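Hello, quick one for you while I still have it in my head. Could you read through the record and tell me how the tokens relate to the sequence? No rush at all, and the record is pasted right below.
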Amino acid sequence: MIRKNTNIAITLGVILICLVGNITMAASAENHALLIGIGKYKQRTLEGPPFDVAALAGMLTAHYDFPKENVHTLVNDEAVKLRILDEIQLLTARTRPGDRVFIYFSGHGTSRRDEILALPLPHSTGALVPADFNGEPGQSAEKLLAQLIIGKRDLRPTLERLDQDREVLMVFDTCFSGNTVRALGASEYTDSSRYLRLDPKSVFGAERDVGNFEENLNPIDPYPYRNIFYISASTDNEVARDIRQGNLHLFPTIDGNPHGVLTDSLLRVLAGQRPVDTNNDGQWSQIELYTAVKSEVKRRFKQTPQALPREGKLAERLYSRSFFARSAGGMAAAPQVPTEPEPASQFQATDYQTDYSSSHALVVGIDKYYQWPRLEYAAKDAREMGVLLETQGFQIHLLTDEQATLRNIHAELQTIGNAVDSNSRVVFYFAGHGQTEDLPGGRERGYIVPVDAAEYDWQRTMLPMDQLNRSIKLFKAKHILMAFDSCYSGLGLTRSIKGHPQQNSAYIQKMMRSRSIQILTAGSRSEQAIEAAGHGLFTDHLLAALAGAADINDDGYITATEIYATLRPSITRKSYSRQTPQFGYIEGNGDIIFRNTPRDRQSATVLIDTGISGIDVWAGTFEIGHRLSKGRHQLPAKAGQTTIIVKKGGRTLYRDTVQLSANRIFPIQIGLSGQKPDYREAFSMLTIASRKVENYSNSLAYDLDHDGREEIVTASGKYLYAFKSNGAIVWQKKFNVPVTLNLIDDWNSQPAIGLTALDYNTVHLMLLNRRGQKIWQHVRKITGYHRGKPDGGGSIAKLADIDRDGRKEVIAIARAQYSLKPRGLMVYDQNAGELWRYAIGPSPQSIAIWQNDRGRPDIIIGTYSPGNGNHEVHNDTSDMQTYVISIDGYGRTNWIIRIGEFYNGVGVLLADPAGSGRASLYAHQYTSSFLRQDAGAIYRISRSGDILNQFNTANSILSIAAAHPSGPGQGFVYAADNKSNLYKLDDRLNLLQKKSLKTESPPPEIRLVGVHDYDGDGSADLLMYSFNRLLSDKNPLAEMGSTRNMFYSNLKFQIISQDFSQLLKSVSIATEWGKWRGFAVKDFERPAMAYYPFMALSDKIAVFNY
């Protein structure tokens, strides 16, 4: 659709996005922004505006000193007319004299020059089209005009107040924005433009009165503002274009998302991809900003942004003023994208374009050879390579095992050769055996070995490398990369590369205009390709490189030379120099290019408590805190592994690689090491009781409204309650059947409350928002029956991004007491559609999501065998056994490890106690007291399913815990058994210490909850609870289901030092025997006091802080 035309009336004079340079203002001046993007209209939707707003908000907060709380956005349905006008009005209250105000609008617009709408707007103004605009046929012009936001009528009164003593920059990415907006109607354009074709007679019935072109550009009224600089998307007689999803291959945007041309150009300028400071004075004046954006737009499109005012002393003053000041320390390298080449200075035989017309990959992996020794992981490597290349836009031609005959390989090569053109790219990947033949004169010939290759008839049954090279050279494709994970694969190399060239946007453009055939091999001529840890070593590193590790300069693009520069040192080091990858050219001097689009990560918070002023704080390559004063500061960061650096001047005060958890706070103290932390006694922060709630035990704590204090959500019978931290009820909901609270987690950047309701033979899985409103639901029928009654249930176990599309899926587990069919795991998408299910014999006890840098995560299932099933088998698992199971993100089995017989169970934990940067899987075995023979163990398991280490005990291991990799207690795993023994082990499960807490008979049961520094002395402590009970369920971990009935007594919270020498605190909760409906315990983080325990009993909720 056509994206905008520009003829904004001088009177309105301002409103879209533009970002300029540095501003010289008083130290107290603040930056404020109002960003409006509307893609969802009743008559015609646009693709770019929501992405425009999101990208600008991220850019301003990350790099231009716009505090997050000062950036307000209105997107789609939020941007109705009254709300837009209210938010602009609120700018006068939110800002102070001297502040900088940025107003941006991306959406439809119209003016008197709009020949489709042809509304009788004044000559000197234009109009914005809000989200609630309704252009249905038969309406009068007056009714249509009343729905618009007209510059002179609606905006000028507020803008005049801002204009008095604020510095305002307005950017409108709309059609007719020279007169204030993006057109709803515009002449049809067959390129990647955004337009809505309407019939002016049947739709509006308004008389056209376009007026004089010069009158629109030079209205009689003078420019009405003194401190407002305005940038529009295009001239009066041009449309403003959008880059739609379907045209991204022709016109790549800065982040791979749809954008308006003006906005994409502005983002590139702000990201430092285009020169701005032409006079080298260290600042970006507004005219320099406008000139840079205008040049970037005109370089790619027939569209000319405009700026107001145009001339006079006022224009000179506003031109020289700077607005956008980049955060100190500069910016990380922003994504570079290929641009159109300059006209060739001489004739070129082939016109290579700056993008690919098609992408094909022949992927071959062979384990099950007919006559050659079998391999373990080649077919798996090929499948994973195919999945990864498919995400890069390749059409995959996959041959594994018996499919990978010599004939089929030749046939697929011919198919690809016929399909490509001079702007295609091709990848040929082979994992399997390779062989070398000695020729006369000391020469050698290399072969790749198909599945049907004969042991001795090499010439007729194998594929010679020189023949493959000749065939590949006949392909018309622009870029071809061959990668071989096979023995002696170096024989394909004819020319090597000398070092890694410096890469920048000019290099990318040059490579995209040059043909190349490149070859990357697992090793040199004398080396064998190694298989280890579930992959070929070469492929393991190649997958990681293509997934982003090889983007050495962080420009958003990965080249073959970058891949080689990444693989060679890492594989050489990993193999102890037994395997050294080789790389070179067979033909040409171009370089194949892969895109690297990192996943959006959830937000986290770094809490800096500093006794030193003037510090700068970095998370990875991004500065998150600048010149901080003494005191406490909460700094936004991206969740995941990163390196936190704190500096003052050139001196580094703190540097550590840490794991930032989503929606959690990571505390750091700077310059306070000499101060002894205050000793913190245990005290009740919150007790909630009575309030006519039948049962509090099914409760969770979560900061629903992001005010820094958790709310308590409780499910009791048919009711769901939300309590404030002072115990006041925020809201309550009633359901038709009893509900169970499963979890609270982030979902589409908002808290989601996961519930399960069982209505006879129907299971309802639900997600509610923070106000208790339903935002997701799936209904499942129970198909298994026992003694005539439906048997089974289920719960929401996790919210996780399984398909790596940036949005979380719902992972549910189904349990049954007797029937097998309902047991297993199911994954649902955001529309409640079932993506896949995985049935198992035993009951799922716990699951963990093991993230994978190269593709979809693995899902780990720990199971429990109740010993009362139907002796059926699903996915090679029986209900009379217990297992640890790994499945991939598509619901396929990776591996299964049998742990024990019936009445055995296993819990799973992903942890990195050694701080290596890679999580390990720890599984603990336990047994039910119904089984006379007790047994327990802890296993450390690799991603490929190998048991790396094992710790055996004579007692059932009921819980394990590990310290945070960057916190105190790093390097240890802790465990508790059913005989009141505590164990301290290193990360490889070597026993370091054992402590018996048995003080009575029978001994109390112990559950570990967390490992943190609870008393503030710098050392890790263990939080646990202990109790005596009469078991009412065969599964000893069944009390974690808070609706279970049981008898227990002597319930205590306890904190013990990591060396087990001191019982730091013991808080008695319930001393006498009583029948309770369970309890829930969890460890939460807070900014003020990092960790505290939370306990929900049947009759009350108690929160304690140490």
Summary: The first strand starts at residue 31 and ends at 37. Residues 1080 and 1096 are 5 Å apart (CA to CA). The radius of gyration is 33 Å. Residues 31-185+219-324 form a domain with the Rossmann fold fold (CATH 3.40.50.1460).
